[in-house]
Amino acid sequence: MAQANILFFRACVALLAMPIYLLSFLGIWEPFCKKIFFPFFLERFCTVHERKTKKHKEELFRNLPDFKSPSGELKLLEIGTGCGANFQFYPPGCKVTCTDINPNFQQSLLKRMNKNQHVHYERFLVAAGEDLHQVPSGSVDAVICTLVLCSVRNVNTTLKEVLRVLRPGGAFYFLEHVAADHSSWKYFWQQIYYPTWKLVFDGCCLTREIWKNLEQANFSEVKLQHLSVTLPWTPIQPHIIGYAVK
């Protein structure tokens, strides 16, 4: 019965979003989404999300300097940099390589870079999280990934790439929205919105249990906590936050 209700409400949501489905069928939506809609949406969403998570991020990134290499440098790789919402939390003098599969964030990214000149920006790579071949193995001290694992094609492959590029003893920092408790109304609505939400918001999946992927990856230590971030009228809650050591 529950599954029948989910399918019915999914159809209702799809009906409301029919123009987008039609544009997708015609091959128009995806390029429009990547070039115009999603960068526009993400910049505004990041502003709201920042207010809600600023204290959590400050606490999360506080120990980044502990992962400096023996030479005293701190080399960071950010997967899915987007509009650069994390730059403000990085320690002065660190070197950052930015990556994103979508190259259309330049305008907002440059604004963030200009505001956060305490960071040294090494380069920007157009790359998916599952394929970071442009980054040498064992070459970075920390990898940062926030609100990205929801939309990569394969979480496990992305985590394998994270482990590859990290030096031994390096850390992977994450903040991600995940599936709600399966017995909750939140999860019920996540299942309903899932197909349309994924189409509209550039592959964002609402029901991934990313903590399981992290726990099953080959990290030597995972420090993870579940977090409640209140984002009214959105299905992207709850969250997980933490870091994992190679």
Automatic annotation (TrEMBL):
GO terms for molecular function: S-adenosylmethionine-dependent methyltransferase activity. The chain crosses the membrane at residues 7-29. The keyword DNA-binding does not apply. CDD domains: AdoMet_MTases. Residues 77-174 form the Methyltransferase type domain. InterPro entries: Methyltransf_11, SAM-dependent_MTases_sf, Thiol_S-MT. Keywords: Membrane, Transmembrane, Transmembrane helix. The keyword Transmembrane applies. It holds the Pfam family Methyltransf_11. It comes from the Eukaryota. This is MET7A protein. It comes from Lophotis ruficrista. The lineage of its organism: Eukaryota, Metazoa, Chordata, Craniata, Vertebrata.
